[in-house]
Amino acid sequence: MTRARAWTLALSWVYAAAVAVVTVVPAGAHRRHHGRWWWVVEAVPFQVPPVSFALNVVMFMPVGVLVPLLWPRAGRIGTIAALCLAASAAIELTQLALWVTLGNYRTVDVNDLIANTAGGVLGLLVLRVAGGARARATG
Question: InterPro entries per the record (predicted)?
Answer without folding.
Answer: Teicoplanin_resist-assoc, VanZ-like
